[in-house]
Design a protein that fits this description.
The protein is α+β, with helices and mostly antiparallel strands and about 160 residues long. It has helices at about 15-30, 40-50, 55-65, 75-85, 130-140, and strands at about 90, 95-100, 110-115, 120-125, 145-150. The protein has 5 helices and 5 strands, in the order ααααββββαβ. The strands form 2 sheets. Strands 4-3-5 form a 3-stranded mixed β-sheet, with no helix packed on it. Strands 1-2 form a two-stranded antiparallel sheet. Helix 2 crosses helix 4 (about 75-85).
């Protein structure tokens, strides 16, 4: 984070009803694809949806157990890998964190605006990825996942 910005701000996490609705929609969509949400996958996605912001994997591990007990790391990492493969979460490499997808579509290119001052992160349309896909295709390359990360300052910190 920047040296001159000492505040945080965002819209806050979604309410429990919104999270339940999103989980039900994911379950419906995946079952239509012949996949299923295990209890571990559901819990990891619930934690990310409830946070409303990027969360580091070790924080997911610590928060995983509803009885206060942490999860085993492989449980969380396998769940994250599944959720990412299905376009339900994105890994933001530059901040080593995961965020629930807000676009509501299957696996897709993702672009994030990340405020270096307050940490606010927003998923935006990744139209640049279309040109990248075309260039990759021309080179005989198949892109499986694209994540674009842009760092700067949000409107409140600018």
């Amino acid at each position: 984070m920047g040296d001159t910005c000492h505040h945080t701000h965002h819209d806050g996490p979604p309410n429990a009803e919104t999270v339940r609705g999103a989980l039900a929609e994911v379950e419906r969509r995946l079952s239509g694809q012949g996949e299923r949400m295990t209890a571990a996958r559901t819990r990891v996605l619930e934690l990310l949806l409830s946070a409303g912001e990027p969360v580091k994997a070790y924080d997911l591990i610590a928060r995983f157990g509803t009885d206060g007990a942490p999860a085993k790391p492989p449980t969380v990492y396998r769940s994250l890998e599944f959720l990412e493969r299905h376009g339900l979460v994105h890994r933001i490499a530059s901040i080593s964190a995961y965020v629930a997808c807000t676009s509501g579509v299957d696996a897709h290119a993702a672009a994030f605006l990340i405020c270096d001052c307050c940490g606010a992160t927003q998923e935006v349309s990744a139209t640049l990825a279309e040109g990248l896909d075309a260039a990759a295709g021309a080179a005989g390359y198949v892109i499986e996942r694209t994540t674009i990360e842009a760092h700067g300052r949000c409107s409140a910190c600018a």
